[in-house]
Write a structure and sequence with these properties.
The protein is mainly α and 343 residues long. Strands 1-2 form a two-stranded antiparallel ribbon. The termini are far apart. 81% of the residues lie in helices and 3% in strands. The longest helix is centred in the middle third of the chain and has 139 residues. Strand 1 and strand 2 form a beta hairpin. The protein has eight helices and two strands.
Amino acid sequence: MEKRAREGSPTDESMENQIEANSHESDFSAEGHHVYDSVPRYSEQEAEALGKKLVNKETFREALHILITWLERRECNERNSAHFYFLIQLCWNHAEKLQTEQKEYLKEIERTDKNLWNKNCSIQLQLNEIEEVFKAVERQNLWDNFTQNQLEKMQEIISDSLNLKQNILKDYVGSAVEEKESNDMCTEVLHAENNAHKLQTKLGSLTYELNTVYQKMEEMKAKCKENENEILKLRSELEKKKRLQGKTNSIVDGDNQQKKPVADVACQSNTDEMHIVSLISVFLFDHPDGVNVDCIHSHLNKYIPITHAIDIENLLRKYPKIFKESVSIGDTQEKKWTCISFI
């Protein structure tokens, strides 16, 4: 195990040197801009060539740097986004290949550890069998048969055998502890991922409920807006009806005001007419033989000025139950009016 660790040191050192060199290379690229400036501008032809480099394990890192440079230059737009998405997908395909390789390395390490464990068990078994030799000497008390120098060598062999067994056991226990810690860490990671998944599920549920409430609130707002518009519409129609009713009332009031003087005039006219009829009736009563229209006109002008005699004649004809027209016998055939009844 120690030998394996010692053998692994140069590899680790070379890996650290490689990482440090890559870091210096990245710093130089970032500070000097030599690599950045040397990257060609984006074009469909360059993108096609870059795609071929991304699927090649040897040219992947170079192609990846070109893709990052294009993105940093903001050469990605809506028109060529499909090409960039294809290139990014190729990067992810390479990541999946790396993941597959990592799994294979882990399986190989697992097989190596298993082989190492089997070899350690075999060594332990053989060491136990070797110890049986010394135990047999101990049981039979054969130590006196060996010289002092031989006994010292045998004690060194027994001590080295015990140390070797302890080292092997120590390495096994250390590996078991590391494996247990790794398993515990994996368990904690799985537990954390499970909790994160539960929290994400709960967050998704709360987000859905929040979106549902927001949607209902928007629907209620739209309904309130619709009702508000309907109220405004009804209010507008009501105002129109009120204005129309006001105009109608004004017209009716105007008509009433206009009709009232007409009624008063008619009433006044009827009163004057009855007064004239009364005067004519009294005058004709005093002349039972009858008089003509001119005499009646002359008599009325004393009390009421009347312009035309024809108006008196029309008034007499208007009341046939009160006044009667007759024609005198003779050459003149004069028309006379008599009163046949009082009002």
